[in-house]
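Sequence only, no structure available. Ideas?
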Amino acid sequence: CDASNILAEAVDGTVAEFVAHMNRKAGELDCQGTHLTNTYGLHDENHYSTAYDITLWMKAALEYDQFREVIGTDRYTVPATNLSGERFFYNKNALISNLYYDKCIGGKTGTTDDAGRCLVAAAEDGDELLISVILGSGPMQVPGEENLKQGQFRESIRLLEYGFDNFQR
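Reply:
I predicted one. Tokens follow.
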């Protein structure tokens, strides 16, 4: 939350101005079911979106090579400095990190008590690009496995595979 607010102030001077900027951008992307009230996505009664609108955001963001690089990186090492030792950051999108889905080029996770476990993911197979959005997922039982799994990742793979198997341009 702090990092997104710092970036907001760097871009637009204040958090409020940046939130207004985000809402204008949502309008430019033709998002019909989105209204944002903060920079970080935590619950607010007036902060909402739809799966379709989230797809529009991802499609627009994928136009930037640096964005693709960041969301497709499974781990990043920050070198040691005079103030701290070496630090490691891991991508929380299991389709890129520990579960690994070879068609996935990246995505964005999000979880709150009110929204459940969410994931927008992009995957490529040849020249086909698909975007999946899973909202409100909970833990799920996977046949043959004892422990519950995070459903947003498993269901994203199923949704993307269904798309690749059943649709074409």
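The first strand starts at residue 75 and ends at 78.
Hope that gets you unstuck.
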